[in-house]
């Protein structure tokens, strides 16, 4: 369930009769937040910038809630617990997490997880670098002593990298190297396995729109999202190749899913009137998702990766029982796996199966990864 503690809508009934004047963060005149979430981790932060970030309104129709009000804080905690009980929730996505008073947010996390130890909460901490995101995860070794108690954070840094990785030429620090580089920074996270990985969401242009509508890029990105560390998130409509065009606005970003609505001629639930490309993407996702369900090695296995060479990025998920090798070829040429470099894993295997195509390979022979393609290989 999506929850928002930073603000409410100006049409909310309590705006006609606030429980107390300080229920909101009030200003003499409309004052907008500076949207600079990095202020919350800035060791040289000015009080002026901090106050404006936390207490400024997100927009003219979004009054900023004062979570330091004890009755409001209690209300938000009890309301969350009520929803979990009433609706049988498995998790909460907390919107605009750093914009609220962070000490109260930590108390909320503690209260919810005290009642439901196996529950999960993911916070929208929109930072563009790994340290800025890691600050908000539970038990981060922050110099200011702050502990959010927030189990899961969105990997917005990887989101940015995925948008560039397959559009750029592969260079020293560009192209697919961006994915390798960010994973190499995982030492800043208290628990990388609980980072949420995604290619797009309801706030941004759909991934296809950022890739020149190139479906091959999307398949490479999704193969990575499904097999790297962390928790994968897929935005609805990905399987239907929904895209965005024209001016970016929330209505365009959140269009109806095709199928099930009166007048729909295309139904992506049943496959009626879908294009060949849409049917192919749906089949691709079904295969990789159903395969992933029972793959403990992808859920909890270790990760080892190799520096990308000539646009080819290879990494392995492994445990004591099995190994999955992922090879993503971002170049315009077919590439062979380097058996010497990958001998740590290939030398222990006689064959490999690509879980997408079902094709089997003899690991003693050359294994060719086609250009602009990801292969997910089960080593046997």
Overview of the molecule:
- The chain has helices spanning 47-55, 70-87, 102-115, 130-134, 156-165, 177-183, 207-210, 215-227, 250-253, 276-293, 296-300, 343-346, and strands at residues 2-3, 91-94, 120-123, 152-154, 195-197, 231-232, 302-309, 312-318, 323-329, 335-336, 351-354, 360-362, 368-369, 373-379.
- With 380 residues, it is an alpha/beta fold.
- The chain folds into two domains: 2-296, TIM Barrel, CATH 3.20.20; 299-379, Sandwich (Immunoglobulin-like).
- It has a six-stranded parallel beta sheet. Strands 7-8-9-14-11-12 form a six-stranded antiparallel beta sheet.
- α2 packs parallel to α3, α5 packs antiparallel against α6 (177-183) and α8 runs parallel beside α10.
- The radius of gyration is 23 Å and the shape is globular.
- The mean pLDDT is 96.
Write the layout of secondary structure elements.
Layout: E1 2-3, H1 47-55, H2 70-87, E2 91-94, H3 102-115, E3 120-123, H4 130-134, E4 152-154, H5 156-165, H6 177-183, E5 195-197, H7 207-210, H8 215-227, E6 231-232, H9 250-253, H10 276-293, H11 296-300, E7 302-309, E8 312-318, E9 323-329, E10 335-336, H12 343-346, E11 351-354, E12 360-362, E13 368-369, E14 373-379
Parallel strand pairs: 1-2, 2-3, 3-4, 4-5, 5-6
Antiparallel strand pairs: 7-8, 8-9, 9-14, 10-13, 11-12, 11-14
Helix pairs in contact: 2-3, 5-6, 8-10
């Amino acid at each position: 369930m999506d929850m928002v503690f930073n603000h409410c809508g100006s049409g909310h009934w309590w705006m006609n009769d606030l429980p107390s004047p300080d229920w909101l963060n009030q200003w003499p005149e409309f004052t907008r937040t500076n949207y600079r979430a990095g202020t919350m981790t800035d060791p040289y932060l000015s009080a002026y910038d901090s106050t404006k970030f936390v207490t400024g309104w997100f927009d003219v129709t979004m009054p900023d809630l004062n979570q330091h009000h004890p009755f409001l804080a209690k209300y938000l905690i009890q309301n969350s617990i009520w929803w979990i009980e009433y609706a049988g929730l498995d998790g909460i996505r907390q919107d605009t997490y750093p914009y609220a008073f962070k000490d109260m947010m930590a108390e909320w996390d503690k209260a919810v997880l005290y009642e439901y130890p196996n529950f999960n909460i993911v916070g929208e901490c929109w930072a563009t670098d790994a340290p800025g995101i890691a600050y908000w995860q539970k038990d981060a070794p922050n110099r200011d002593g702050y502990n959010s108690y927030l189990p899961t954070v969105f990997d917005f840094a990887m989101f940015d990298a995925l948008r560039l990785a397959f559009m750029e030429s592969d260079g020293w620090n560009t192209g697919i190297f961006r994915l390798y580089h960010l994973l190499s920074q995982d030492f800043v996270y208290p628990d990388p396995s609980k980072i949420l990985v995604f290619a797009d969401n309801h706030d941004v242009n759909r991934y296809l729109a950022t890739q020149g509508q190139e479906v091959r890029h999307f398949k490479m990105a999704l193969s990575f999202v499904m097999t790297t560390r962390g928790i994968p998130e897929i935005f609805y409509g990905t399987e239907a190749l929904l895209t965005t065009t024209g001016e970016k606005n929330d209505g365009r970003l959140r269009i109806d899913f095709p199928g099930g609505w009166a007048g729909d001629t295309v139904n992506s639930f049943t496959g009626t009137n879908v294009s060949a490309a849409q049917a192919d993407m749906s089949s691709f996702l079904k295969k990789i998702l159903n395969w992933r369900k029972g793959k403990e090695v992808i859920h909890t296995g270790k990760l080892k990766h190799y520096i990308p060479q000539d646009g080819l990025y290879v990494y392995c998920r492994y445990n004591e029982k099995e190994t999955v090798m992922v090879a993503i070829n971002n170049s315009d040429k077919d590439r062979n796996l380097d058996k010497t470099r990958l001998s740590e894993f290939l030398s222990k295997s006689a064959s490999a199966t690509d879980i997408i195509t079902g094709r089997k390979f003899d690991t003693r022979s050359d294994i060719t990864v086609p250009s602009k393609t990801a292969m997910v290989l089960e080593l046997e």
